[in-house]
Amino acid sequence: MTGAGTNTFLIGHAEVAVLDPGPDYESHYQAILAAGAGRIKWVVVTHTHKDHSPLAARLAAETGAKLMGCVLRPGDEFQDTSFHVDTDIRHGDRLETAEFTLEAVFSPGHVGNHFCYFLHEDALLFAGDHIMDGSTVVILPPSGDMKDYLDSLSVLEKYPATGIAPGHGNLMPDPGKVIDTLRRHRLMREQKVIAGMRKTGPGTIMDFLPTVYDDVDPKVFFYARFSLWAHLLKLERDGLARRIRHDVEFDQERWELLAN
């Protein structure tokens, strides 16, 4: 479970789409069935992390609903292996009913199979784990990618959303401001990575963490390792840093900043 929990959304009245059914908790499962009251026709997921999709297969089997989402190939240790679809959803695909139109927006970054969904009638963007209320999301390489994350923000801001429904936390007004703040935060963190590497010299992620993330509680360093790795991979792609020692443990690889 992430934070206070994963938000599950029921869209529609006569026919209902369940978006991100969440982890396989019995009380939550029963609550979805009660709210759906025999009207659940689709089960849609933003991505297949274990706090978002494990209830999907069970819910579809119980209700006969169609599963919609994308499987990460190859998978990783964070994936819900119970989720399967006959055909992966694609960018621009639409679920159209008499009541609503839900459009899939490919938004890699947090993970490579992430989709947001835009609800046209309400101008509402369901952001999954690309945007969370009260926190920035962890980028999880190798499927997660910092450059993809930033590029996806640029895609999302083109939609005429008036609100964001995140996978965790409360509804968020003013999407343009939210997206701009996230972009600036990531780019400022990138500058801290560069400054930290310049100060520390060649080193590992574990060497850089205390300097780059000196503004966060050390208790979250375990997760911050992944986002720092994502920043380093972006800097490598940008020609600003390089790995000087590979290791089976990503946080023990050695990196150095290139002259610029």
How would you sum up this structure in a few lines?
Helices cover 32% and strands 20% of the residues. The protein is an alpha+beta fold.
- Proportion of beta-strand residues: 15-25%
- CATH topology (level 3) name of the largest domain: Metallo-beta-lactamase, Chain A
CATH architectural type of the largest domain? 4-Layer Sandwich
Largest sheet, strands/sense/barrel? 6 strands, mixed
Distance between the termini: 42 Å
**Gross morphology:** elongated
Whole-number total of structural domains: 2
Please describe what this structure looks like.
This protein is α+β, with helices and mostly antiparallel strands and 260 residues long. The chain folds into two domains: 9-173, Metallo-beta-lactamase, Chain A (4-Layer Sandwich); 183-257, Arc Repressor Mutant, subunit A (Orthogonal Bundle). Helix content is 32%, strand content 20%. Strand 5 (94-96) and strand 6 form a beta hairpin. Helix 3 (146-156) runs antiparallel to helix 4 (175-200), helix 4 packs across helix 5 (205-212) and helix 5 crosses helix 6 (221-237). The longest helix has 26 residues, at 175-200. The protein is elongated. The termini are far apart.
